[in-house]
Amino acid sequence: MATPITIVDDSTMSRKLMIRALPKNWDVEISQAQNGQEAMEAYHQGKADIMFLDLTMPVMDGYQVLETLQKTGLNSFVIVVSADIQPKAQERVMQMGAMAFLKKPVNTEEVTAVLTEYGII
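^ that's the sequence the OP posted. Answer follows.
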């Protein structure tokens, strides 16, 4: 059965690059969201067992998504994918429940390493 994942980024190009970086043999059903609000809708529709989440977006940013998941006890495996590589940003998202932090642009090896580390693939 395919794993439902949601890729959340306000940039269409960034979402496409993230899709290309996914492991080739990974059986997934991909949904896309342009902002955190759409990401939460995808989550509630059962489309976000795993979420690749940007931090800087309009409407609802990545921090707000993590906060909502944390406060409401919702469970999604979140990998933050961001160009914001400041140590404070990385530390903050990990404290908010993110499982990993990947710097944009991501590559297949980095994504595979995180997924393998957690036994997802």
